[in-house]
Structure formats: C-alpha cells, structure tokens
C-alpha cells in the first residue's frame, strides 16, 4: 500500500470523477431470441436431469470442473503500466477466487495494450473485435475501456457489459456475434482503481456479474413476477422472481438488505422473498455474495 501511495504521489494524478455521470451496474442488452431458445432447451434438459435424479435418488447434479483462458485487452491505458498490471492481477484473482467456489476455473493466457482512444471510448466495438479478439468461444476476452460501448444516454454509463451465449446448431466464426463475444469492463469498475471514486462498486464484482451473463445468466429481475420460473425472473428455478433491480443507480445505491426482508412479488400469490445477495442483481459489491445452485447448473 505504501508503494501505491508513493506511486500516486509521484504521478500526481487527480481523481477523474465526473459527478454528472450516473453509472449503472451493467449495460448488458436484452437476450436475443437465439439465447432464449437455447435457455428453454437447457431448461428442458435440467427438468429431465432432475427427474432422472429423483428416480435414482441422486441429490446433486453432476457439475464438472470447467476452465477458461482469459485474455485482457487494455485499449488506451491512462495510468501507469505497473499500477495497471497490479489492478489486472487483483481483478483476475477476484474472478478466480469467486468462481473457485463453483468449480469454475480460469487461467490468465495473455494481456495486451493498445493505443486506441476511439475503441476505449466504446466506438467501433465490432471492428475492434474483428481486429483483436483472441481464441474461440471458450476464451474469455475482457476489454478494459473508459466507456462501455452502449451508453444509455449522454449522462449515463454502464460499468460493464457482456455478450450472452447464442444457441446455434453451427458455429459461424465469421458472424458478428462471434466477434462481439466478450466482456467489457470500464476503468470505473476495475478493482483497486485509485483514480476514480468507485462508490459501492469497488470490490471488483462487476466482472463476476458480467461473467455470469457470459455463461448464460440473466438479471434476477429480468422477466419480473411470473408463477412459472420458465417465464419469470431469470428463468432459473431456485432464484425467486423479482420485478425490479434491488439496488438503485450509482452513486445512491441501496444498502445491503437482511435475508427475507425484501418481497417484490406477492407473498399472497406464493412468491418467496427476494434474494438479497445475488451476483446477478444490481446491488453494491459488498452485498453481492452468491450464485444459487440453479444458476451454477445453468452456467455449467
Ligand atoms: Zn448485468
């Protein structure tokens, strides 16, 4: 830490905070029909698997360990290289440590630096992917930008954005979807960034959230209250539906809620209380602590 303070003093860089900008946790777009078709197909498999486990009295679904190569692309780094590499290492460690609990592993394949201020500002995302994306669909490409590519408005920015997996019989490696596959993480959400007031998104969990999207998870509030899990909430059996994001927008987020204290869908209609610590909700990093078993199965 002393080293970090010395470095900051030497660099004499002032915080790059713009109070006019409202930051959202995530700008991941609505899943496509191709994604939803795949999700319904997977739900059918999950139901069949659950039925077979009931028959054989197995309690746990088979969850193999899976591992992903990770490639960081730093598009136009405004900071010192040494400091940036420290932040990248810490961010990767958070990803690896968090998902170790779910038997999902990562290894750092490589990281690249570019001087591309237009890409760093979220422009020409498809062209950027065509030029620098690495590996197949099993490679997690993480783009570190100043501004994510689909700003919601002139005064609104998303901290991170992810593509969703697409259901397809045949992989088309020339399709736009392939080149756009990956996760965008802004410098605002890169853990340990001392140059920005990160508010409650300061523990590096935006990347955890975005990786959940990358493996097919939706927001817990995505489809709202519906008695059938296939059509409500995030379409996962053990995540109670909710109709809106639990946290509000940065910089005035809700604080953490105790379990059982938030009920957005009617208890009279049989809905259980909201989850209050799920990575796929919009909540401050300090409150985000878990994926459910159903979400873990879905990711696998
Ligand atoms: Zn999201």
From TrEMBL:
Residues 200-300 form the Peptidase M43 pregnancy-associated plasma-A domain. The keyword Cell membrane does not apply. The keyword Lipoprotein does not apply. It holds the Pfam family Peptidase_M43. Residues 1-19 form the signal peptide. Keywords: Disulfide bond, Hydrolase, Metal-binding, Metalloprotease, Protease, Signal, Zinc. Belongs to the peptidase M43B family. This is Peptidase M43 pregnancy-associated plasma-A domain-containing protein. It comes from Phyllosticta capitalensis.
